[in-house]
Amino acid sequence: MVGVLCYDCGALNAGSTKFCIECGTRMAVRDDRVACPVCNSQNATGAKFCVECGTRMAVRDEGVSCPVCNSLNAAGAKFCVECGAALARIDGRPAVTCPRCRCVNAGGAKFCVECGAGLATGGASSARPIGGLETVSGPFSEWTLKWREQANLPEESLRLAIALLIFALALAAYALAPSTAMLALIYVVTSALAGFALVQQFLPNLPRLVRLCGGYLAGIVLTAWTTFLPALALSPATDSSLMVGIFFATAINAGVIAFFWPELDRLAPKAAPFAAVIAAWAVIRLAVPNQWESPIPLILLVGLAAAAVSLALRRQVLTDDRRALAFELILLAAALVFSTWLMDARLSGTPLTVSSNTWGDTGLHVSLARSFSEGHNYPPEYPFYGGEPIRYHFGYDFFAGALEDAGLPIRLAFNLPGALGFTALILLVFELARWLFRNVAVGLMAVVLLITNSSFAFLRYFQLYNVSSVFDLAGISKAVSHLWDRQPAPFTDRYLAVGPYFVEGRVDKISIFWTLNVFLTQTHLIVAMATVMFVSYALIRPLRENGHLSTTRSLALGVLMGLTFWLNGILFMGATVFFLAFFFLHGPRAGTLPMLVPPFAALMLLGYSVDSHFYFLALLFGLGALALLSDLRQSLPFLAAAGVLALPQAIWLNGGLSNDGGLREHTGYLVDNFRFDHIGSYGDFIEYWWLNLGLSLPLMIVAAFWAKGTDRKLILAVSAIFIFGNFVQASRDLGGHNHKIFNLWEVLMNVFVAFAFIRIWTLLAKEIKLGDITIPRRFAVALPATLLSAVFILLVLSGIVDFMVIKNDFRVDVFGDKESTVEAINRYTDKDSLFLTAYGDLYTAPALAGRRLFLGYQPWAASAGYDVPIREATTKAIYGAPSKDEACRLLVANGIDYVQLGPAERNKGLAINEAVFKGFVPAVTVDVPNGGLAEYDVHKSCPGAAAYSP
Length: 950
Prior knowledge:
By secondary structure, this protein is α+β, with helices and mostly antiparallel strands. The chain is built from 37 helices and 24 strands. A hairpin with a 6-residue loop joins strand 7 (96-97) and strand 8 (104-105).
């Protein structure tokens, strides 16, 4: 009988098995293809020769398939001849009868193949794949087996009871301790568990770490939507619609966990200790309420819950390869620690402070998040340009607002999902690189390249210390010794490179967008990027391994991808280009690519010389051809699902169909004055990317030369992102937004840069034979290894200096002296109010209180496509109105509810008619530095408001 490998533990099961006999996991549908033992190509069952390399195929029944690399090994083999992984096998112990369904199971089986019930058998587990971050429960206790038999899960009624229990736990947490973060914790945990359950259901054969990351990301995306939609629908009826949405999403997540989580009957008994911990917490919270305002008890609570669950597991049987398990645990912990430090360096402290290099963007995102948690921003409007529909991807900010409303402080509402998201990004990059090249070192190198940058910005650091050459050891030593310290001007509070912005009167050619600052200023980019990496892994692996993508997987991934548009629409466009190219190049018509280039080039030239509309025809032709010429049976479900879900979001966040959204033709990205017909432009183009990519650029070329056919297809698909970014401007702010397209390209290309670097190192680390003379490896590689070590340093040095910038960045108050004003606004004004303030400030009290501004920080409003000049003129006209009637007419006509008059307005150069506002009724008055501040109520100050309406 043909065996089936368990996707979870790698154990070999009979072909008709429903549940794995080793770990109890529900078995996936078996793939009938057979891997070639030489080239690992997938062949039809019964094939005598490999279709790729011609190797004679072994009979399936005569061998054992490796659970790691899928190579076919001889029957009875203990280890794979290709990769060394331990091969799963079933021993010959006596058969065991299932206590639930009475099915007879093979000796050594721990779970019934028919119903999945645990079998009371001892012994060690069979062999497991190398490199799996897995643990297997030991033999169940008699109590657990009795509970499983009596509960007889899964049954719909009992699963429904579990879902209701989770929801009741959330209600109890909110009712007993609304001022703590317990509801937020339940909200986050249930979203992650629900996401993992769905990933396990639709993508069961992915590696554990990939499923773990994908579950968290899918949970955030789906939970944000299931919170937002009911909150939006109920917003006309109640100001607490966000809290209703939070409970609705928690209920949905509880249902998903209960009905989609595999082997729930194995996990349900172990939830009892966690429930006991929650109950104990509730008692302590009621008895000593003030002790739980600090985050430290919350951390202790989580640790106690984890300890309780560990005790419930009773015993853990680790994988055979303990070193691989330990390595992945260390990688997971290191990624989490680094990500937490990164987020904390951006936004932290009591009172809350923000780093100076992220100050500008954080002002927008905090205001946007608080417009949901403290305000009532439905339908969503831009906080710095209230009164018109929002034109900004706000999905992550909404999720952060929901977390704050559920009890987390605003810093944790941003930092917690951001840190977990960046951890997921690190692990997914590692897993993709490790799987593509079957090499852990390549995965680690890809992670190093992700968190650093390879540009030549580091040269400026050495220039700061007057290092004249590589032989100036004294100067280099001095520069290195001061690396940990805050640097002198002009790098005291900024990165070594800040392009495309000005430095000393000229545009910097090296961009700031290759630094970690892009993730610090835009936390939503982290979650969106990690989601794209997860979807990429889940698409790439099956198409490369067996050339087949199931419709279910394609649809599920398409839905997930389509729902991410509101996280970052520009990144979505870049990812879509990559997926179109990938499907095309892995389809049956990939050979038609040379025929598509001439018409595409012709349309581009017509766009340059005749009319710019030909550029968009070229774009439509290129992307449409890639879509239609791919294997539509596999690509269409994904592309259709993603497109159907993303298109309404694109229209909505673009401001409607009549708004172009800033989408236009632009060649050369940030290369100054790039022209097709100017030969010097190509030199400028190469110079720009050489300065910004550094030694990664030649390593990319080396990788393309060394890569195999399938790897070259993937490189070509990734390169489509680069081509798209160099021909299309995706928003009004070319530098500030288009970089996300190139960030995606760089993250994916760094996988191949890592491959090239490790491949060079591997080639050098060999003995050299000259006739009968063998030069030992330690002598043969001494000089090349030194040179390659220097290359490594040059690849990461700019990033290391960036770490010091992040560490030493000075802090700026978020609320500062506005704290009392913010509290007063929250107490005395309506949540959906529109405020008039002096424009030009990022951190204004009404915006920090979650209220919308008539006009806030103009650069952000302008980059979103709003008409800033007309509101500047209106603001001046209101503050300088000659009479109260004129001021009231303008205020009512523009839908303004409150007028702020304080030091900011008086010091901004506005011509304020103070006499007019003396007749207004203040809703809030606060004593602040540099004078008093008042928030005037327009409706009470202009009682005949209807008379002022146009």
